[in-house]
Amino acid sequence: MQLSTRDYKVKDAKLSALHFCMPHQPAIAVIKLMRTHNVSAIAIRDKNKVIGIWTESDCVRAQAHNGDVLRQPIRTLMSTPVHTISDDSALNDAANKCATLAIRHLIVVADDDTPLGLLSLADIVGNQGLDHYLNLKLIGDHFDHRVPKVQGSDNARVVAQHMAKSNTHAVLVEQQQHVGIITATDVLEMMLAAQGQCCWPFASKELVTVSCEDTLLHAYRLLHQHGIRHLLVTASKESQRVKGVLTLKHINTEIESAYLSELEAVLAERDCALQASQKDLYLANKIIAASLDGIMITDAQGTILQVNPAFTRLTGYSAEEVLGKTPRILSSGTHDRSFYQAMWQSLSQQGVWQGEICNRRKDGDTYVEWLTIIEIKDKQDSDLVYAGIFTDITERKASERKITKLAYFDDLTGLPNRRLFKDRLSVALAHGQRQHQRLAIMFIDLDHFKGVNDSLGHSVGDELLKQVAKRLQRCVRSGDTLARLGGDEFTLLLNEVADIDEVIACAEKVLAQFKPSFSLAGQAITITTSIGIAIYPDDGESMETLLKHADVAMYRSKDLGRNSYQLFKATMNARSLERLTMSSRIKQALVNDEFELFLQPIVDCQTTQLCGAEALLRWQDPQLGMVAPGQFIPLAEELGLIIDIDKWVITRSCALLAQWQQQTHFSGTLSINLSAAHLCHHDLVDTVTAAINEHGVSAEQLEIEITESSFISSFSQAREVLLALKLLGVKVALDDFGTGYSALSYLTKLPIDKLKVDSSFIAKVPDEYGNSEIVSAIIAMASSLNLLVVAEGVEKPCQHQFLQGLACDYVQGFLLGEPCSITDFNNRYVYPCATSTS
């Protein structure tokens, strides 16, 4: 048996016509009405309301209990209450109601309770396709074995009593050796006939028989074929012995039982499915409510049906504010009509759309969301709904932009970084090759930037780089690229260069940006730059070659005095290689202890007695030979190696002082020169202290020589370091006095013990008037300030005599002793001096 999958309505079934009688009508009139219309039931109606029903079965039961029922009003005999069902109800619901109430008929009513017809259980299951089921059932299991037997002379009351007692709808009638059947319908005929008439004339005599071995399907077909409602059942096809009666009701009851069992299973399955569906719906609602993504559900017209709490959190709109409205309430106006047309085209063709969309919150702020719209359509429902699921990706987009900026732009200046510069240079080279156009690369490197960093601190250095970047941007044309490669190195890419003069004009414009001083940490700082230029395709056709040649030209600019630009020339490559070799050798020299101290004596101007010496650094390279300081000191400063070299000089000088004290008791001073980068370095005082303590020397014998340029940019920090050295007992000398800024206020603010007059002044005395007066003034000023004076570069006796006349304290120069090795110095000056002293 298989129920229809479609939900049939009661109004789809074939209803039996409904006939009515009045409550006061006698039973005999109602029976006549039933026979006239050949129906098995009559409805009793009072004032257009059905109050009861009278069936053939009711008639048989009444006749069995009271033979005189024909004159009684039908209201006393009818069955109540009357059970109705709406014609719009499901047919399965009607069958379920019959089974629950144990009834076989329902009155079908319209919405206004107007009776429309009679629906029996047989009507419900009559077209269910039960042939297969009936073919599996044998008659022997379903016929009535206990069919009452009456005599042909018995009247209607006796027959009704037998039917009521056995609860059957038929009895067997025996008349002599003949057998017939009387049904409930026949009892109604007998009741309408003469009172007390015998039943044989009303019995059906031409009976059709079936055996217990036949199927219900065979019996069902025989009943319809002969238009009868009863069959005699024999023991077997060979035996004609009657075993009982099979009625159409038996078959219908079996069909109805099977149908109702199947219906019960279907309903149970439906209830389970409904329960599961309700659970799924509950879980889905919980998940939607707990989702961190905003969810919005709309109908096919875009009307918002449901939103979740995350929607409110992300947009600021409560559910009450958006339900019944359309998503246009969130529109930011960012997207044009074509954007939404493409969105709906994707939805109609693929059932889904995904992408970024910019919307507006309730407070007016715009945000970017990743939106997924899904078309949802139930196979059994024609209505469409759309579910929109979105995540606020505003912060993620900002992070992506920041990551991109970090990847391609310098975080300090905001300029393109090395990676982006190379990308743009690569594109520019490809374009220049196709269009046969020139381009230029400028390497821009700040002069002495490390000194600013070391003396004023990295924060001031960073501020200088920012200001430099802003000034350089004034030199950039549309389509050019200014980048910071790192440190104090900037590059400028000039596209579509017409001629060299255009590049030179740009370089001069860059140099001009450095003429005004920079305001840093409350001070006016002047800094210059060195520029190297390479031209495509003249100086190279590849990125690597052009960058290398621009770098070489930049270093050539530094070698030639800085604050200038140089166009690349092929001869520069050799010098660049020499420079590269030199930088590598300096690092190796520190490791291999290839540096050496030379000493030049400092003597008393009046007596020429040895008073001390100045330590001068020399480099004895195994391959290059003796390298002069002018060749490697500037390079060491640029490479950041000068501090390590200074530390070596300090340590070696203290070791030499210790040797003098132990072997000769020589008490003269030893002067060492400090680089500007080291003066303000945080560990200078610690380095000097450690060297003095390690070798056990007297700090008063150690003298530090500084230049004005080493503290001019960071006076306060330099003063703090010098005061700390003075507390140790170290002496301080101001070297090259007169060649720098020579702001006399420094002399009173810094803890200076000695002035060293630069050799450029001494070389022109006593012959040149101006220089002689300057030297005289310096010595007189130093005397008034209680400062000692050392005159450098004394090479002629007349110079010595002039200085003696001015009462100069000390002199130093080739006339009195050339720089020499420590061994030579000891042999010439220290040991003889010690011997004579003893």
Structural class: alpha/beta
Radius of gyration: 61 Å
User: Which stretches of 5+ consecutive residues score pLDDT under 50?
Assistant: 1-6
Residues in helix, %:
40-55%
Strand order of the largest sheet: 25-26-28-29-30-31-32-33
Task: Please tally the β strands and state the result.
Answer: 34
Characterization of this structure:
With 838 residues, the chain is an alpha/beta fold. A hairpin with a 2-residue loop joins β19 (481-486) and β20 (489-497). The radius of gyration is 61 Å and the shape is rod-shaped. The protein starts with 19 loop residues before the first strand and ends with a helix. Residues 1-6 have low confidence and may be disordered.
Summarize the structure.
The protein has 838 residues and is α/β, with parallel strands linked by helices.
List keywords for this structure.
about 850 residues, alpha/beta, 5-stranded antiparallel β-sheet, 30 helices, about 45% helix
Q: What's the helix and strand layout?
A:
Blueprint: E1 20-21, H1 27-37, E2 41-46, E3 49-55, H2 56-65, E4 84-86, H3 91-101, E5 105-109, E6 115-120, H4 121-125, H5 131-135, E7 149-151, H6 156-166, E8 170-175, E9 178-183, H7 184-192, E10 209-211, H8 216-226, E11 230-234, E12 242-247, H9 248-290, E13 294-299, E14 304-307, H10 309-315, H11 319-322, H12 337-350, E15 352-360, E16 366-377, E17 384-392, H13 394-408, H14 418-435, E18 438-446, H15 449-456, H16 458-473, E19 481-486, E20 489-497, H17 500-512, E21 518-520, E22 523-525, E23 529-536, H18 543-559, E24 564-567, H19 572-592, E25 595-604, E26 610-621, E27 625-627, H20 629-639, H21 642-663, E28 669-673, H22 676-679, H23 684-695, E29 702-707, H24 708-711, H25 715-728, E30 731-737, H26 745-749, E31 754-757, H27 759-762, H28 769-784, E32 788-791, H29 797-805, E33 810-811, E34 820-821, H30 822-837
Parallel strand pairs: 1-2, 4-5, 7-8, 10-11, 23-24, 26-28, 28-29, 29-30, 30-31, 31-32, 32-33
Antiparallel strand pairs: 2-3, 5-6, 8-9, 11-12, 13-14, 13-17, 15-16, 16-17, 18-20, 18-23, 19-20, 21-22, 25-26, 25-33, 25-34, 26-27
